[in-house]
Amino acid sequence: MKLAHRVKPHIAALRPYEPGKPAEQLERELGIAGVLKLASNENPLGPSPRAVEAIRKAAEEVHLYPDGSCHALRRALAARLGVSERALVFGTGSDEILELVAKSFLAPGDQAVHAWPSFAMYPIVIRGMGAEAVAVPLDARAVHDLEAMLAAVGERTRVVFLCNPNNPTGTSVGAEALERFARALPEDVVLVIDEAYVEYARRPDFPDSLALVRKRASTLVLRTFSKIYGLAGLRVGYGIGGEELVSYLERARHPFTVSLPAQRAALAALDDREHLERSRRVNAEGAAYLERELGALGLEVWPTDANFLLVRVRPGIADALLREGIIVRPMEGFGLAGHIRVTIGTPEQNRRLVEAVRRLWEGAP
Ligand SMILES: *Cc1c(COP(=O)(O)O)cnc(C)c1O
Predict the structure, then answer these.
(1) Ligand 1 centroid vs 95 CA: distance in angstroms?
(2) What is the 3-state composition of the chain as percent helix, strand, coil, each rounded to the nearest 5?
(3) Beta carbon of 117 within 6 Å of any ligand 1 atom
(4) Distance between CA atoms of residues 233 and 217, nearest Å
């Protein structure tokens, strides 16, 4: 009450991001063990054993501040991606880099364009700066409507957020469409291509976004160690962009964002190609299994380029699954009533999900 007239109105108007319910919380609520969480697109295989070993070793050094420039990780990633070290910016998850983009480029009166349904953090970081979030509906196939997004770009547009593959639909845009879009976008509009799930993408014409950065320097590609690399709990993500663009984000950031264990673990995870390949394979097989089994129940399942599936069920199924000890993401908040987003798990987890859905589906009136 004392502060209601002091807090910035655009902050007071925000609704906090709703994360997936933690498994421990549901276990406490239900008084059961063995809750299965398929709600936050985490890697069901866990982190690379090499990353775990690196974290163990790093534990001895946590009295030291981390390297604020992420030097070793920066060098390794620059070499891996074939980009300059100055093209990279690191953050405590790519979430932080979204925030840095907003902080650097958005002020009251500005606009930023994003699709909807898409990643729920975009409108939060945009509005958090007092700017206006312009949401453009996905097309009928739940794919980014790039023409409509272009039409939404105006004099006041400073940033466009494009999630590819898109969370929560799993759909993606191809190289040709994205390139056309990027070419048509005014040069001084920052294009953020959020590729949190890029490693899972299977379509052959998936865009080469780094080539796009070379052609259009006001482009920033966001990637993360939270998803396929299985390090969500450590919080490390990065952006690849034109050097001028990255230099502004570097000015806006805190000095020690990525923790010492996180830097070491990310570096180790990057080297474990086998874990990466296994994660990709388990995901592709799980996607095929779930598409087939849920489809056989008569449920509509969207084709996915990510590690989750958008499924049309019936209102109430997410809650019923909770009572079965399975956490999925209800999609009501995205305007997708009766839909859920399920993370693709291990074969055993996927089977448990299918059996629970079948029971609920067939047992229903
Ligand atoms: C998970 C996710 C992120 C953020 O992940 P971090 O853990 O902050 O790196 C960013 N964008 C999308 C679309 C995501 O799904």
Answers:
(1) 6
(2) 45, 15, 40
(3) no
(4) 31
Query: Measuring from atom 6 of ligand 1, which residue has the nearest CA?
Result: 93
| CATH code, 146 | 3.40.640.10
Residues 223 and 86 in one domain: yes
Residue 324 near residue 36 (C-beta atoms within 8 A): no
Radius of gyration of the CA atoms of the chain, in A: 21
Placement of tokens 């570097």 in the chain: 250
pLDDT digits 0-9 by tens, 264-273: 999 999 999 9
267 and 285 part of one domain: no
Helix (H, G, I), strand (E, B) or coil at 342: strand
* 243 plus 335 within the same structural domain: no
- 166 and 32 part of one domain: no
What would the pLDDT profile of 47-59 be if each residue is shown by its tens digit? 999 999 999 999 9
Are the CB atoms for 159 and 189 separated by under 8 Å?
Answer: yes
- 163 CB within 6 A, ligand 1: yes
Last-in-domain residue among 237, 254, 271 = 271
Within this chain, do residues 138 and 245 fall inside the same structural domain, yes or no? yes
Q: Per the structure, how many domains does the chain have?
A: 2
pLDDT in tens, 149-204: 999 999 999 999 999 999 999 999 999 999 999 999 999 999 999 999 999 999 99
Q: Other C-beta atoms within 10 Å of 320: how many?
A: 18
| Closest ligand 1 atom to 40 CA | 1
The residue segments making up the domain with residue 303 are 20-46+274-363
